[in-house]
Each structure stands twice: as C-alpha cells, then as structure tokens.
Amino acid sequence: MQQLSIGFVGTGRIARALISGLVNDPANRICGYDKDPDAIAAVVKQFGIEGTSSAAEVARDARIIILAVKPYQIGEVVEELRPHLTTGHLLISVAAGITSEFIRQHSIDAMRVIRVMPNTPAFTGQGMTALSKGIMATQEDIALATTMFSAIGRVAVLDERLMDAATAVSGSGPAYMFSLIASIAEGGRQCGLSMQDAILLSAQTMLGAATMVLNGEKTPEELIREVTTPGGTTEAGLKQMDAHHVRQAMIETVKAAAARSNELKQ
Ligand SMILES: NC(=O)C1=CN([C@@H]2O[C@H](COP(=O)(O)OP(=O)(O)OC[C@H]3O[C@@H](n4cnc5c(N)ncnc54)[C@H](OP(=O)(O)O)[C@@H]3O)[C@@H](O)[C@H]2O)C=CC1
Ligand SMILES: O=C(O)[C@@H]1CCC=N1
Asked: Where does NADP(+) bind (predicted)?
C-alpha cells in the first residue's frame, strides 16, 4: 500500500468534501492549513487530520499539496509556498479558471502541477472530478491523482483547454441539480404533497434517472421517449418545459459558468 502525504492549503467547503473521502483510506496522511482558524479547527475536529499553522508547514509535511483557496487567492498562496517547494512536491489546484501554467510560473520552473475540478457530491462518494495535466506533470502524476480522486467518485482526464467547460458542467453542476430538485419539489408541494415527501420524490427521481443514463444503454432522448405516453401526463409537463425554454435556459446556464471560469483565468 502506497503511503501518501497530502496537505491542503485552504480547508473551506470543497476541501472538506475532498477530505471526507480521502480520510477513509488509511494510507493517506492528511494535514491542512487555513488562514481562518475556525475553518482549520472544524476539519481537525471533524476528520482528525493534522492542523498546521502555515503553508510552509504543509510543504514540510506533505508531498502532495492541494491548493483549495479562492481563485484570486492562488497567487498569494503560491508566493507563500514558493521558498518551501522542491521538485519532490506535486501541486494540485482545485481553483476554477486558474491555469496550471500560472501556478508553475509563480512557483518553480520544474513544478509538476495538476489542475482538478471536483464537486461537492464528493461528500457522498459520488463526486465527479475532471483533471488535467500541467506541462511538467508526468503520466505517473496523473495516475496517482486519478487513484486519489477515484476515492470520492468518478474521474475524467481532460485536456486543460476543456477545464472551463468541465467546471461549468460538473463543478458548478450540483447547484443546478439542487435547484431543479427544489423546483420540482415545490411543484409537488403546490399540487398537495408535503415538502418532505416532495423532496424525497424529486431527489430520488433525479438519482434514479442519472443512474439510468450512466448505465449507458440508452441516450437521454430515448429515455425521455420511454417515459412519455402519448397524450399522457409527461407530455403535458414537457410542453410546459418547452414553453418556458427550460432546455435553452440550462444551455445558457452552462455557457455563462464556462465564460466566468475563463474570466477567472490568470
Ligand atoms: N465549492 C465548490 O463546490 C467548488 C470549489 N472549487 C474551487 O475551490 C476553491 C475553494 O472554494 P471553496 O471551498 O468554495 O471556498 P472557501 O472560501 O469555502 O474555502 C477557501 C478557504 O481558504 C482560506 N484561505 C484564503 N487564503 C488563504 C491562505 N493564504 N492560506 C490558507 N488558507 C487561505 C479561506 O479563508 P477566508 O475565507 O478567510 O479567505 C477559506 O477558508 C475555489 O478556487 C473554487 O473555484 C472547485 C470545485 C467545486
Ligand atoms: O462557484 C464556483 O466558482 C466554484 C467553482 C465550481 C463550483 N464552485
């Protein structure tokens, strides 16, 4: 069993989702630093990882450093880490928009950098992580990152130019899905269900529908046809979705998020 020392700089919302899965592998030794003392105290308490008091200490204690701060904070964190980085480190950034080249150029020339885009369903082991290789990272680094992130769900290795699109679909995607679940549940509530029942019916339906798509035997279009009895209830519902341009709205939603990811680029 390969022992991995993993250090987080930034232990906010997404770091917590990743840590919740990574702590389950006894081969992982995890430490973290957050400039917000409450954020680091919370993960130390909840997951039993080792808390440190600086990014430098993370670099001292971990070979794999996960940068989990907001995009505009990445430059400052890399500056802080730079004097403590060696070619033995692997930097993994989860920041939306920030390129692996920005991180390499602000760290050390030979720095191996991997850019990843996970999502919060990592909390349930059903995460989706897109990852891409920076120019100095090796295929072994990608294999290692793939294994690491497979512990919290599925992994897709993509060319870095596709990371804005991946961010828009699966990074931000849980928020769209939660919004759809809530809207469908609200419709159910207005038709007489209790909110609790409506959320159960709505969320379990999304889970089941997603599972059918992932089984891969039929396309989403074929699956829609199978639900839609001519002249029946689904047809009446889908007509309203069309009248309100829901499909186009979802396409525009993804395009706006991808454009924002591109704007965050440094
Ligand atoms: N939330 C999500 O679902 C996803 C987020 N991401 C990416 O993950 C990154 C983090 O997002 P999220 O977890 O939502 O953000 P959070 O604000 O919840 O977490 C970031 C944490 O890093 C801390 N921090 C800031 N500067 C430093 C520093 N110099 N050293 C150590 N810690 C620092 C922040 O403290 P303070 O608040 O005081 O600044 C905060 O506690 C972003 O780049 C985002 O693009 C990627 C995929 C999904
Ligand atoms: O909203 C954001 O910018 C981050 C990136 C993807 C999900 N959350």
From this structure: 68-71
String of b and e for 22-60 (b: at least 16 CB within 10 Å)?
bbeeeebebbbbbbeeebbeebbeebebebbeebebbbe
For 108, residues 6+ apart whose C-beta sits below 8 A from its C-beta are 82, 85, 86, 87
Residue 118 near ligand 2, beta carbon < 6 Å: no
pTM of the predicted model as reported, rounded to 2 decimal places: 0.96
pLDDT value, residue 63: 97
Query: Letter for the amino acid at 255?
Result: K
What structural domains does the chain harbor? 4-163 (3.40.50.720), 173-263 (1.10.3730.10)
Pick the ligand that lies closest to the CA of residue 120: 1
| ipTM of this predicted structure | 0.98
107 lines ligand 2 (CB under 6 A): no
